[in-house]
Amino acid sequence: MPVAGLAVRSLFGDYRVELAESPGFVGELAALPQSFVIVDENVWRCHRDGVLRPLADADVHVLPIAEQRKVLASVEELYAAMTARAAKRNTTVISIGGGITQDLTGFLASTIYRGVPWIFVPTTLLAQADSCIGSKTSLNFRQFKNLIGTLYPPERVLVYPGFVATQEEEDYFSGLGEVLKLHLIGGEEAAAVYAREAPALTGRRPAAVGDAVWRSLEIKRAFIEEDERDTGRRRWLNFGHCFGHALESASDFALPHGQAVVAGMILAGLVARARGRLSAATEERLRRALLRPALVVPPDRLALDADTVIGAMGQDKKRTGPKLALVMLYDGFAMEVVDDLGEDEAREALRELQGVL
Questions:
Q1: C-alpha to C-alpha distance for 65 and 45, rounded to whole angstroms
Q2: What's the alpha-carbon Rg for the chain, to the nearest Å?
Q3: Tens of pLDDT along 237-295?
């Protein structure tokens, strides 16, 4: 049963995040009438005989998940499955999985029958600590990351930290990258808390992970409630993403999202240092003490063609001018969104990245 709650105000309908110490809520979800349950294939395989056992007799749609499937064609598969059911607009979509599952099912719920209610159960660290709030659904289009989407929050978000225990190391650290990002944009005090807890977080200690998830959600809530349409301070949440999304695209999505974001934050720090806005000492301290330990992908997977990365940055939907967009952290934990990043600057940062990994 839920033991803690976080109310989130939204222009599109307020909702609540509930933290559960035990998976008893799954039985409640299984008993809901007129529900359409969608579960990540990997989550179903790991938990169908355990946490998700109450859903054994439910009409569960098991969804194969990969970044390459985060496209309209996958949503069309869900349209077909849902329209084959007798229940229509009174159906509640129940989504159980990570960020890709969230994006596909959230887009489904926001568009079928002009919108149906949905409930999200995030099962990855990244989804629990970051993507589960904010109202966004995002789909990839061709080689472009998150180009298509809607703003449509779930009615409820149910967070059970026990799911994270079955994540592969690279996926866990992908989520930890977003946790770190949120603590950095949360300011010096939040960053100091993360630094103290870093050994426990890299060691996956359950209490530390649960606390970090809740702190992350509280930090993010302040940004999304102030600027839900992503026109002002919410853009700070893209720290690490301008380079990060391009690294993902350039690797054909072989780089996990949160790991690409960590590399993106390192790159943003190198640019900020080169511009004289972040001292060399602070850049090195943040990189060595916080960012580099959270980056577990082999360095050779980040040795991507600079022209390809810069070309992908040019397609970033955050771009508003002729040059490239970037979110940077400066001395004093000040944040700024710039739209004047030159290709030569980006190229130099990418070159330097190989020397600091």
A1: 12
A2: 20
A3: 999 999 999 999 999 889 999 999 999 999 999 999 999 999 999 999 999 999 999 99
Joined together, the tokens standing for residue 195 give: 């630094």
Amino acid 70 reads K
Domain 2-166 has CATH 3.30.70.380: no
Helical axes 188-202 vs 206-226, angle rounded to 10°? 150
One-letter identity of residue 99: G
Alpha carbons 244 and 266: distance in angstroms, whole number: 10
Distance CA 309, CA 303 (A): 10
- State how far Cα 123 lies from the chain centre: 12
d(CA 30, CA 221): 29
pTM higher than 0.70:
yes
The secondary structure of residue 124, as a DSSP letter, is: S
- Name residue, tokens 């040059």: 323
Distance CA 127, CA 140 (A): 17
CATH 3.40.50.1970 in the chain is located at 2-166
Decide which of 1.10.10.10, 3.30.559.30, 3.40.50.720, 1.20.1090.10 is the CATH code for 169-356.
1.20.1090.10
Backbone torsions φ then ψ of 123, nearest 5 degrees: -115, -5
